[in-house]
Design a protein that fits this description.
The complex is a heterodimer of chains A (492) and B (304).
Chain A (H helix, E strand, L loop, with lengths): L7 E3 L2 E2 L29 H19 L16 E4 L4 E4 L2 E3 L5 H21 L2 H6 L1 H17 L2 H9 L4 H27 L4 H8 L6 H21 L1 H7 L2 H8 L6 E4 L1 H4 L22 H5 L19 H13 L6 E4 L1 H8 L11 H22 L4 E7 L6 E2 L5 E11 L5 E8 L5 E4 L7 E5 L3 E11 L8 E10 L5 E9 L5
Antiparallel strand pairs in A: 1-2, 3-4, 4-5, 6-7, 8-10, 9-10, 10-14, 11-13, 11-15, 12-14, 15-16
Helix pairs in contact in A: 1-4, 2-15, 4-6, 4-8, 6-8
Chain B lengths: L14 E6 L2 E4 L5 H20 L21 H23 L4 H5 L2 H18 L1 H4 L23 H10 L24 H14 L6 H14 L1 H4 L25 H10 L14 H13 L17
Antiparallel strand pairs in B: 1-2
Helix pairs in contact in B: 2-11, 4-11, 6-11, 7-8, 7-10
Classes of the chains: A alpha+beta (492), B mainly alpha (304).
One iron/sulfur cluster binds next to helix 12 and helix 13 of chain A.
Chain lengths: 492, 304
C-alpha cells in the first residue's frame, strides 16, 4: 500500500490541507453547508473550557434538585419558577408577580455585566459561556468519541456505508439525542417540583406543558448543537452583531499577530528565522477552529473568540522552538504599534468601561437595597369613587375603601389597621364596627377588606380630608403606611 | 416595465423586472430557513384542515367541514360556562335560604356572596341605582343609612323578591296622592305645606305659610309621614326631617313632588334571578355600608 506522506510545514509538523470553509469569502447564497471537522487541541484555554463546561452543565442539571425549606405549604425547591402558584423562588428570595421588576433588574444587571466584560475582554460570552458554545463543544466531544479526531472523521464521512460507519454514526446520534433529551428534561425541572416530575414524567403523568417544553428543548438542542453549530452564530444569532457594537479598539480579542507572523511559509530544518515570520503556515489554527475560519485573515464576525486557535498555535510554536503567543488575546492597535516599533499597551480603564462599571455598581446597589428592604407584607388602599362620598342621615359624610393586605409569609398573620386624620374621624370595617380593626390574612395570600371612614358634619371644613392608613403586622411588628383622602363634597 | 433579466451593476444580481421610480427589486433567492418554515406552514395548514373545522360548505350545502376532531368553540364555551357554574354551585347552594348570620360568619362565603352580588348588581341594578349603588334623583342611594322600606338584610332581600309597586302580588306598595294634578289641594295650599316641610327639615322657611301648612300636613300627610314627619318604613313613607331627598329638597322640588305624587317602581326579581343570587345581591347591597342590623342598630351611621 502506498502512503502519501502529508506535506510538512516544518520538520515533523504536518501542513494541513484545510480550508476556512466558513470564511465570508467562501460562503455563497444557497451553497450547501460544508462540514467543519474541528481538531482537538490541548492547552490552557481548552482546559479552561472543559472546566467551565463541567461547572455550567453540572449546575444546570443539579440545581433543580437543591432543596430549601420555606415552611408552611410552600414548595421546598431552591430554584423554582412556579407558574401555577405565580411565584418565583430563588433560595431565600420569593418573588410575587407584582415584583417582576426584580427580574427586570436582574436582566439589566446581566446586560450591563455583558457590556463591561465585552468592552474589556471581547466576546468571552460567545467563546466560553454561551449555551450554544457549551453544548456544541459537548456534541463535538461526543462526535470525536465515536468517529475519532478530524482526519478520521473526514475519512469516515467519505467512506462507503459499512457496519463500522453505521454503528459509529448511530451511536453518535443516539448519545446526542440522549444529551438533548436530558437538556430538555432538566429545563422542565425548573418549572415543577423536580422529584415530582421525575417520578411522573415517564409514566405520562406530568402536565402537558412539561412534555411540550421537553420536546421543544430536546429538538432545539439536537439541531442547534448537533447539526447547525456555527450557522447559529454566523446567521441566526443577533448577539455577534450587538457585541460588535460593544467592542472598540481597546477591547481584547483573539488576534493573529501578523507583525510577528508574516511573511509566513514552511520552515525547513536549519533554516534561519531571520527575515521571515514565525507562522509556518501549518494551518493548525484553521483545523482547530470550530467556526471554520482562518484567524490570520484578521478579526471577523464569525470568530467566537473561543481561543482554541491560540492553544493550537502555541503548541506549534513550542515544537518549532519559537515563543508562544503568535495568536493571543490582543488588540489590532497593539499589533500596529509593534509593527511601527512602538511599545504596545492595554487600556482597561477607559471612559466606556468606567461608565459600564459605575452603572453596574449602581444598579447592583439599588437591587441590593430593594431586596434588603423587601417586606413580607404589602398594603394597598383603594377609595371607592362610585359614589365618591355618601351623606348619611345625620349629615356626616362617609367614604368607603378597599384595603388590600398581602401576607407574603407562610403563616397566617394578624394585622392592625389604623386610620389617622381628623380627630373626629371614625373608621370601621364591614361587619366589625367597634374596637381595634384587627384582621387576619391567610399565608401567601392577598385579602381585601372593606373599610368605612366617616366624618361628622361639624368637622367637615374642606372638600378633601387627608388620611393616613397604617397597617401593623402584629406578628413581625412591621408597619406599612399609605396615604388616601376622605372626599366630603364640601363646596362652600 | 423594465425588461426582465436586467442585471444590477452593483451586486451583479438579476432583477425581478419590477421597478418603481427607478428602484428595482433584486431577484435574490429566499433564505432556505425561510422556505422551510414556509413549507412547514403549508403542511401544517393541510393537517389543520383535516382535523379542525376549516372550510365553508360548497354552494347549495349547509354549514362547513367539521374536521376529524369536531372541535367547536361554541361547545367549548358552553362547557366552560358549565364548569364555572359547577365550581360555584357549592357556594350557591349554601346561599340558598342562608340567613345573614350564616353568611357573615363564614368569611369565604361572605366574600363569594359579595362578589357574585356585585356582578349581578352591575348587570341588573346599576342602570337605575348607578354602578356603585350611588343612586340618582328618583332612584335611592343604597350606600347611605336611609331606607324607604327598611335596611336590614331581610328587608333588602324581601324588597328584591317582591319589588316596589311591581307586578308581584305581594309587592311593597304605597301611593302618595298627586295633590296638585288631581286637584286635591290648591296651588297655595301646596305652597304652604311645602313651607312646613322646609321647617321640618331645618331649612329656611316662611313662618306664616308654614303655620298654615302645618294644619294641612296634619290632615293630609301625617297618616303616612307621621305627625313629626319622620316617616314610616312599613308604608315606604320617607322621613322628611333628614337631609336626604329622593326627589330633591329645594322648595321648588318639594312643591313639584307634592303636585305630582311620585310613583317610583322597582321590579320584582323573584323568578328572574335565582334564589341564591337574590341572597348574594342582598348581601352586596347590605355591605355597601348602609345595611342595618336586626334590632335597628345602624351599621352605616358612623357610630356617632
Ligand atoms: S498561525 Fe500558528 S497555527 Fe496558524 S498556521 Fe501559523 S503557525 Fe500554524
Ligand atoms: S478563529 Fe480562533 S478564536 Fe475564533 S472561533 Fe476560530 S478557533 Fe475560536
Amino acid at each position: 500500500m502506498v502512503q502519501i506522506l502529508p506535506k510538512a510545514a516544518a520538520p515533523g509538523i504536518e501542513q494541513h490541507d484545510a480550508e476556512a470553509v466558513n470564511d465570508a469569502a467562501n460562503r455563497k447564497l444557497y451553497k450547501k453547508r460544508e462540514p467543519i471537522y474541528p481538531k482537538l487541541v490541548h492547552g490552557k484555554f481548552r482546559l479552561a473550557k472543559w472546566v467551565f463546561m463541567i461547572l455550567a452543565l453540572g449546575a444546570y442539571y443539579f440545581i433543580p434538585f437543591l432543596r430549601w425549606d420555606r415552611g408552611g405549604g410552600a414548595p421546598d425547591q431552591a430554584v423554582l419558577v412556579d407558574f401555577e402558584g405565580r411565584r418565583f423562588y430563588f433560595f431565600w428570595i420569593e418573588i410575587w408577580p407584582q415584583e417582576i421588576y426584580f427580574v427586570t433588574g436582574l436582566l439589566i444587571l446581566g446586560a450591563l455585566a455583558m457590556f463591561l466584560v465585552t468592552a474589556l475582554f471581547g466576546r468571552v460570552w460567545c467563546g466560553y459561556a454561551c449555551p450554544q458554545t457549551v453544548w456544541t463543544d459537548l456534541f463535538i466531544a461526543v462526535e470525536r468519541l465515536f468517529e475519532g479526531d478530524r482526519n478520521a472523521r473526514i475519512k469516515l464521512d467519505r467512506a462507503k456505508w459499512s457496519f463500522d460507519k453505521a454503528w459509529r454514526k448511530a451511536g453518535k446520534h443516539a448519545v446526542w439525542l440522549l444529551i438533548a433529551g436530558a437538556t430538555g428534561g432538566a429545563w422542565i425541572l425548573y418549572f415543577h417540583d423536580a422529584f415530582d416530575v421525575l417520578s411522573h414524567f415517564f409514566t405520562g403523568g406530568s402536565p402537558i406543558s412539561a412534555y411540550l417544553f421537553f420536546g421543544i428543548l430536546t429538538f432545539t438542542t439536537y439541531t442547534l448543537a448537533g447539526t447547525m453549530r456555527e450557522q447559529v452564530c454566523t446567521y441566526m444569532c443577533p448577539w455577534p452583531r450587538i457585541q460588535a457594537a460593544m467592542i472598540d479598539n481597546d477591547a481584547l480579542s483573539v488576534t493573529y499577530r501578523w507583525d510577528r507572523g508574516e511573511p509566513r511559509g514552511p520552515h525547513k530544518k536549519n533554516d534561519s528565522w531571520e527575515g521571515r515570520g514565525d507562522c509556518i503556515d501549518c494551518k493548525a489554527c484553521v483545523v482547530a477552529c470550530p467556526m471554520g475560519i482562518d484567524i490570520r485573515n484578521g478579526s471577523q464576525l464569525e470568530c467566537i473568540n473561543c481561543a482554541l486557535c491560540i492553544d493550537a498555535c502555541d503548541d506549534i510554536m513550542k515544537k518549532v522552538g519559537r515563543p508562544t503567543g503568535l495568536i493571543a488575546y490582543d488588540t489590532d492597535i497593539n499589533v500596529e504599534k509593534r509593527q511601527a516599533g512602538e511599545k504596545p499597551g492595554f487600556r482597561f480603564v477607559r471612559p466606556r468601561t468606567i461608565v459600564y462599571a459605575v452603572t453596574l455598581a449602581l444598579v447592583a446597589a439599588v437591587m441590593l437595597v430593594a431586596l434588603g428592604s423587601r417586606s413580607t407584607m404589602d398594603l394597598n388602599v383603594l377609595r371607592d369613587r362610585n359614589p365618591n362620598y355618601v351623606t348619611l342621615s345625620d349629615g356626616s359624610v362617609r367614604n368607603s375603601y378597599t384595603v388590600k393586605i398581602i401576607n407574603k409569609t407562610h403563616e397566617p398573620h394578624q394585622y392592625r389597621i389604623t386610620v389617622e386624620g381628623d380627630p373626629a374621624l371614625h373608621a370601621w370595617l364591614l361587619g366589625q364596627e367597634d374596637g381595634d380593626l384587627v384582621v387576619t390574612v391567610e399565608p401567601d395570600r392577598t385579602t381585601d377588606f372593606r373599610l368605612f371612614a366617616a366624618l361628622p358634619q361639624d368637622a367637615i371644613d374642606r372638600a378633601s380630608e387627608p388620611l393616613l392608613f397604617r397597617v401593623e403586622d402584629l406578628v413581625s411588628g412591621e408597619v406599612q403606611v399609605t396615604r388616601s383622602v376622605l372626599q366630603t363634597g364640601y363646596d362652600r | 416595465m423594465a425588461e426582465h433579466n436586467h442585471k444590477d451593476e452593483v451586486t451583479g444580481v438579476d432583477t425581478t423586472g419590477h421597478e418603481w421610480d427607478g428602484i428595482r427589486e433584486l431577484d435574490n433567492p429566499l433564505p432556505r430557513w425561510w422556505l422551510w418554515i414556509f413549507y412547514a406552514c403549508v403542511a401544517w395548514s393541510v393537517v389543520y384542515m383535516i382535523f379542525m373545522p376549516a372550510l365553508p360548505a360548497p354552494p347549495g350545502f349547509e354549514g362547513f367541514t367539521r374536521g376529524l376532531t369536531g372541535n367547536s368553540e361554541r361547545v367549548n364555551v358552553a362547557q366552560q360556562m358549565a364548569d364555572l357554574q359547577a365550581s360555584r354551585s357549592a357556594n350557591f347552594e349554601r346561599l340558598q335560604n342562608a340567613d345573614f348570620q350564616a353568611i357573615e360568619s363564614d368569611p369565604e362565603l361572605f366574600r363569594f356572596a359579595i362578589a357574585a352580588g356585585r356582578s349581578a348588581f352591575g348587570d341588573n341594578c346599576a342602570t337605575c341605582h348607578g354602578s356603585g349603588g350611588g343612586g340618582a334623583v328618583g332612584y335611592p342611594n343604597l350606600n347611605d343609612d336611609i331606607w324607604l322600606w327598611g335596611g336590614t338584610f331581610e328587608d333588602i332581600r324581601y324588597t328584591l323578591h317582591v319589588g316596589i309597586r311591581s307586578d308581584h302580588p305581594d309587592t311593597r306598595f304605597s301611593q302618595m296622592p298627586a295633590y296638585g294634578r288631581d286637584q286635591l289641594l290648591s296651588q297655595s295650599e301646596i305652597r304652604d305645606v311645602t313651607q312646613y316641610v322646609l321647617q321640618l327639615s331645618d331649612q329656611s322657611f316662611d313662618a306664616a305659610a308654614a303655620g298654615r301648612g302645618a294644619e294641612i300636613f296634619a290632615m293630609q300627610c301625617a297618616s303616612c309621614h307621621m305627625e313629626d314627619g319622620t316617616g314610616d318604613q312599613a308604608q315606604g313613607a320617607p322621613n322628611l326631617t333628614d337631609r336626604d331627598w329622593l326627589y330633591g329638597g329645594s322648595a321648588a322640588q318639594i312643591e313639584a313632588t307634592i303636585h305630582r305624587g311620585p310613583y317610583g317602581v322597582m321590579p320584582s326579581w323573584e323568578g328572574r334571578l335565582s334564589e341564591p343570587m337574590i341572597t348574594a345581591l342582598a348581601t352586596y347591597v347590605y355591605s355597601l355600608g348602609g345595611g342595618q342590623e336586626d334590632g335597628g342598630d345602624e351599621m352605616g351611621a358612623g357610630g356617632q
